[in-house]
Amino acid sequence: MAATPRIEMKEITKSFGRIQSLRGVNLELYSGEVLGLVGDNGAGKSTLMKVLSGVHLPDGGSMKFEGQPIRLHSPKEAKNYQIETIFQDLALCDTLDVASNLFLGREPLRLFNRLIDKKKMHLSAQQELDRLGVTIPSTYATVENLSGGQRQSVAIARAVINNPKVLIMDEPTAALGVKEVRMVLELIKKVKQSGVSVILITHRLRDLFEVCDRITVLYEGRIIDNRPITDFTMETLVESITAEKEAVH
């Protein structure tokens, strides 16, 4: 790992009214690392990632990107730091084809009339999908007609086209079949190999052992465990996630 974290979050707090969602979270993420972020519902995972992606402004704490202090006021500012997020709803346009979704807002234009160069767009889309090893019937296929795994792959590919340094993935394998889960996990491995830092939020704990380097466990807005994946078994990971809850009852 590099000496300087790509992302460093210190003492991050966030409340919504009387609800304290984050209570002083410290998180580090390194170049080319896949970090699994786990915890029960309400642990603060999504809130923490929305702080990192610029959706929420924290109440307290500080953040650094590659050693430099940052303060993100919007998702656009996060994207300027090459921080990309794939939320559970994927935010794909179902009525558009694959290529149009991949290059939405960044479509290549013809020089002479400034109209979208569809031939170039579809060629570039296929090249990107091939580079990532993503199998889609056609870049002309409408997204609403794709399988769940194919839709997830399109969402990941769209984020990767923007050359992210950090990729946040919220439940990327939820509701997918075995073959589709395998396709998404292989895609995460390829993204990692290119040096991208990945934060993976998932309730499918077995997926963590496939792709993660490290696991961070959240409970009621606090980090209660943070170790290399090699320090965990499935049993000890479940124990870590449930330990605080059991201690309360």
TrEMBL record:
Its main location: membrane. PROSITE patterns: ABC_TRANSPORTER_2 (PS50893). This is ABC transporter ATP-binding protein. GO terms for cellular component: plasma membrane. Coiled coil: none annotated. Pfam families: ABC_tran (PF00005). The keyword Transport applies. CDD domains: ABC_Carb_Monos_I. Residues 7-245 form the ABC transporter domain. One of its GO terms (molecular function) is ATP hydrolysis activity. It is a peripheral membrane protein. Keywords: ATP-binding, Cell membrane, Membrane, Nucleotide-binding, Repeat, Translocase, Transport. It is found in: Cell membrane. The keyword Cell membrane applies.
